[in-house]
Amino acid sequence: MAGYNHLFIPGPTNIPEQVRQAMNLPMEDMRSPRYPELTLPLFADVKKVFKNHNGRVFIYPSSGTGAWEAAMTNVLSPGDRVLMSRFGQFSHLWVDMAERLGFEVDCLDMEWGTGVPVELYAERLVADKAHKIKAVFVTHNETATGVTSDVAAVRAALDACGHPALLFVDGVSSIGSIDFRQDEWGVDCAVSGSQKGFMLPAGLGFLSVSQKALDAAKTARHMRCYFSFEDMIKTNDTGYFPYTPPTQLLRGLRAALDLIFEEGLENIFARHHHLANGVRAAVSAWGLKLCATEPKWHSDTVSAIRLPEGIDGVEVIKHAYRAYNTSLGSGLSKVAGKVFRIGHLGSLNEVMVLGALGAAELTLLDCGVKIEAGSGVAAAINQFRSAAATAAAKAA
User: Fold this and answer.
1) What is the pLDDT of residues 278-289, one digit of tens each?
2) I need a labelling partner for 114 at 20 to 30 A (CA). Which of 36, 107, 196, 226 fits?
3) How far is CA 294 from the centre of its chain?
4) Hey, CA dihedral for 325, 326, 331, 333, is it positive or negative?
5) Rg, the chain, Cα only
6) Annotated Gene Ontology MF terms (predicted)?
7) Binding residue per annotation — 341?
8) Mean per-residue pLDDT of the chain
9) Phi and psi angles of residue 56, each rounded to the nearest 5 degrees, phi first
């Protein structure tokens, strides 16, 4: 087909040209005397994205899943009790990993379309007088259902009852795109991946840890090798890695971080909220509903949109790709065939979002969904223009 593929899945996201060009270079010696000139500032700058001032970050050649395994196996011991909740495919995968790694998982199953049940967490923590729960897990942004949960509220629940459990956060589709404050929220292990808000190909797993987690790792008894904190610290402190690092991805990371700091994290968060509001306006104009059951759960990085009865989401995704060369996100697990997803994170602006909405409208109409042509795009345009006018009035 003429033109290029339009990528509107919630990751991997679009890669800025500056980042692509930064990775287009010959192979280099990852043990050269000059390599720490690249790596040491990277460690420091990734910490800034997590807003971690007192701990340290690890950059693994892996996906976010690898970084999750690193967090669990370095900081916890076999048989430790952990409190988790499951309300989407990715929160389910973290539960599955914890069980397979031999932890005692106390899992709260919630409705898909809701998020972390803070009140139920608080009840479990208050009842745990012996402090058997060693870690509490929060999926900050459930990518499968377009739901964002309140990390700060979970920290408040821990503090209210004086519980010493560690706080683990999956921020794969939130960190770098949605407000996240590791130190302020008392997060001990925060995980992200390169292919979302960091605007890179998949292949880097980021794990940002507190000093409390680093101290816990010194006595934790789980077996680990590839993901060992000890091995990483020993070599990272001098600017190197215990194994071959993905050199080109690290060059891309440098360029991506430069773009992030040039725009400013707070501006990035505001941009994502602005773009998400446009998508939500379109969904409302179509007469459809989000998978997120209430506005308090709405994600600023991905919208999962429920389809009417009788419309197969699998066919919607296929038709968008074949007819309009556009990649939309599919429904996963329990919502497979029931939703389609629009990813609105990373290197994205209003015109790109309008393109996603236009392709979605064409596809929905072709697949028999009763919407008015142009309604969603028009609603998004009005939302964007209204927000711009309000911002201009405030600045005046």
Assistant:
1) 999 999 999 999
2) 196
3) 20
4) positive
5) 21
6) alanine-glyoxylate transaminase activity; L-serine-glyoxylate transaminase activity; L-serine-pyruvate transaminase activity
7) yes
8) 98
9) -155, 165
